[in-house]
Amino acid sequence: MFKSIVKLYILSALLVTSPVLQAADNLVVVTLDGLRWQELFHGLDEKLLATESNAAVRAGVLQRFTGANSAEKRRKLMPFVWDTLAKKGSMIGDRTQNSKMELTNQWWFSYPGYNEILTGKADDRIASNAAKMNDNVTILEWLHTHPSEAYTAAAFGSWEVFPAILNTQRNDFVVNAGFTAANWDQPSPRAQWLDALQATVPSPWFNVRLDAFTMGYAKEYIAQATPNVVYIALGETDDFAHDGDYVQYLLAAQRSDTLLADLWSLLQSHPQYANNTNMLITVDHGRGVTPTSWQHHASPDAMDGYMAQLKTEFPDGITGANEVWMMAMGPDIEAQGIVQTAATLDQIASTALTTLGLDYRKFATDVGQPLYPILKQNATEPKTISPKSEAPSAKVTTTLGDQSYIITPIDSLLNVSRIGFGSCLHEDKPQPLWEVVQSYQPDLFVLLGDNVYGDTEDMDELTAKYQKLAEKPKFAELRQSTPVIGIWDDHDYGANDAGNEYPLKAESKQIMLDFFGEPQDSVRRQRADGAYTSYMLGETGQEVHIIMPDLRYNRGALNSVGRLEYVTQRAPNQQGPYSPSAISGASMLGEQQWQWLEQELAKPADVKIIASSIQVLSEFSGWEAWHNFPADQQRLFDLIEQYDLNNLFFISGDIHWSEAMQRTEKGRTLVEVTSSGMTEEWKDISPNIHRTSDAFAQANFGMITIDWEQSPLVIDITIVDQNRETLIHQVLPISQKNK
What is the pLDDT of residues 298-321, one digit of tens each? Predict the structure, then answer.
């Protein structure tokens, strides 16, 4: 779930790891309003059935839907789902199987949920179910108006609010919802028969028609007009639930299953759709879990607004109403049944576009990531994006101590759009993030320091610790397919908070460079004053310049407060023991490195990234940061101003929590995103006046994505945890290339 959004954008082409196959040409998205995951995955809930007062009805329902276990009960309720879809597709949402999906919007009712599904992001301005025209562009609108003119969209819904959700004032594709008759040119005789029948068959509700009519109109239009993008929204499950009628809610769920089976049969019998259609099915919100709450859905925030009538009975909102699910089937969906993952509803839109072979980032860059765990590899390669690189997939062998490792060198990378970054990973701890990193398919990964916890003057011990990291299976897999570069911080340098006094810094440097596969004759190897380096990546017009200063080798002594001041004043405020140096000109870099850094900043590039092992912009935390060396910090800010670097931002590590920062210097807004740590967490988060996001003390890594087709460039930076949840999201427009 998105926990903090501050915005900063860059998106890119995906890696090619297998031959590109043709994605399906057709997409069908179906929603079952308010159907709980509990019934979908476990069938009849006898505690809720007990709310039915008629004993004979209860007995009949039990006979129809009960079973010896959940598998039997769910199959009786929804046989098409469990006999066909679960065997041929993927499902997310059974929380008892460590498969979870949640809302990201803050309201937990219908209009906000449908907007999240169809636009790929929550819009908390939508705070009611009122039929107000949606300001947001849905994937149906985007596809229908796609420059290729390859897509024709249509939508059918039982609820009368869908014309507003899909904004029919702005769009001309067919939207048939509520009690609308067939509203397309020359409807078929059967569609006209549905018109007459709908006019005479009453609905239990004034604003929702029966789902049989919705699906009937959808099937007639599909057969007649053959649209390649169809959205169908069924509604009876939600409305019978609101009525408190659990029996009819179950029957509506079973009818939904039958309607899905009929739809799939139609699609597989039609030459355009057969074996060429992906179907995604999901829900707009969850429901309560008790006999008194199951018929409702609302968040704690909604209780102070649109759902205020429920606040007296449910002051803390409806527990479970944010718990949703999805399932999918088709040629681009893995056949794996229930998938153990953590997902959010805002990932449906990008997943839908990806199944069409489209780069979802052309639709929007601030949406949820595709659900890669359910997608076949061929589905993740956009049709419109060429492979990452035409360079040969050269591998090299690097030797570290008595061991050798296969890695992909940085010089094999021709262009770059997706850059991962992280820091602070202890070699003796599990590192589950590497599997998540691989799922994001970076072109490059940057390690920002504390890459191992060496803390030793025994170089054999330090080598062995790097070997432990190199032999982590998922990290080894990443290095074999993706270049990994890095700089050190204190623990992998050799000692906690160490600087130029560390006696084995030259030896430690060579071990680190062995780990990263640095060529033996490189300038970085030969430098006598540190491990600093830079990389100019990409072709003209798409140049990314990554600058990595060494903040250890030449760093002078830190200025520490006394023990009493630390215990009585600093520690209670979650602040460290350090203060800005009182020595004029005290430096971390040393003059020779400063001359090098100025030359690097002066080089022209489209995007510049300073990868700093410690924070650059933070004002005062008491821990290590550029602020402890005011002359260095100000000199850097002055150079940024001198070279007018509007295309530069910072990434950093070290502090064992993640956060985003902005700081204004001479009218220029500077941006920094910290990712720390990949295994290490520090719960006593220090104050930071420049922080622009929440801070998260949990394992995380960062992803930078650059969309080179945007003008001006937009850079997207996200911080992601091991559950693939986005913790921080920042968007940075790049206004010009420095000259």
Answer: 999 999 999 999 999 999 999 999
Q: Token pair for residue 441?
A: 């398919």
How far is Cα 701 from Cα 719, in angstroms, rounded to an integer?
A: 6
Query: CA-CA distance, 330 to 85, in Å (whole number)?
Result: 9
Q: What is the DSSP letter of 253?
A: H
Q: Is 64 exposed, middle or buried (0-12, 13-18, 19+ CB in 10 A)?
A: middle
DSSP class of 89? S
- Its pTM stands at 0.56
Name, in order, each residue with C-beta under 8 angstroms of 601's C-beta and a sequence gap of 6 or more. 547, 608, 639, 640, 643, 645, 648
Distances (CA, A) of 134 to 216, 511, 562: 26, 58, 59
Q: Using 50, 70 and 90 to split pLDDT, how confident is the model at 11? A: very low
Q: What is the DSSP letter of 52?
A: -
Q: CA-to-CA distance for 483 and 537, rounded, in angstroms?
A: 12
pLDDT band at 211 (very low <50, low <70, confident <90, very high): very high
At 343, give phi and psi (nearest 5°): -135, 170
Selection from 718, 682, 716 nearest residue 699 by Cα: 682
- The Cα 45–Cα 295 span in angstroms is 13
Alpha-carbon torsion, ordered 393, 399, 403, 407, to 10 deg: -20
In whole angstroms, give the CA distance from residue 638 to residue 205: 67
> On the CB side of 372, how many CA atoms lie within 13 Å of its CA?
17
Q: Residue 142 corresponds to which tokens in the numbers above? A: 């985007």
Instruction: Provide the strand spans (E) within 287-346.
Output: 326-329, 337-338, 342-344
Residues 6 or more apart whose Cβ sits within 8 Å of residue 527: none
Give dist(CA 532, CA 535) in Å, integer. Answer: 11
What does residue 712 show for φ and ψ, rounded to 5 degrees? -70, 165
Question: Helices (H), strands (E): how many in the chain?
Answer: 23, 26
Q: Which domains does the chain have, with CATH numbers?
A: 26-380 (3.40.720.10), 396-734 (3.60.21.70)
38-95 pLDDT per residue, tens: 999 999 999 999 999 999 999 999 999 999 999 999 999 999 999 999 999 999 999 9
Smallest Cα–Cα separation from 347: which of 119, 71, 109?
119
Q: Which helix (H) or strand (E) holds 468?
A: helix 459-470
Q: What is the mean pLDDT of residues 486-499?
A: 97
What is the length of the chain?
Answer: 739
Is pLDDT above 50 for 401?
Answer: yes
Q: How far apart are CA 433 and CA 427, in angstroms?
A: 13
> Measured between alpha carbons, how far is 338 from 333 in angstroms, rounded to an integer?
12
Distance CA 123, CA 127 (A): 9
Three-class DSSP category at 117: helix
Q: Is 661 helix (H, G, I), strand (E, B) or coil?
A: strand
Q: Residue 507: which H helix or E strand, with range? A: helix 505-515
Whether residue 653 is preceded by a cis peptide bond, meaning omega within 30 degrees of 0, is no
Beta-carbon count within 10 A of 68 CB: 7
* Per-residue pLDDT tens over the stretch 556-571: 999 998 888 888 988 8
The DSSP symbol for 35 reads: -
Residue 638 has what DSSP assignment? H
Cis bond upstream, residue 204 (ω within 30): no
In the sheet that holds 668-674, the strands lie side by side as: 533-537, 544-548, 607-612, 648-652, 668-674, 659-665
Q: In degrees rounded to 5, what are phi and psi of residue 410?
A: -65, -30
**Going by C-beta distance under 8 Å and a sequence separation of 6 or more, which residues neighbour residue 573?**
686, 687
How does strand 90-92 pair with strand 337-338?
A: parallel
394 token code pair = 């050269």
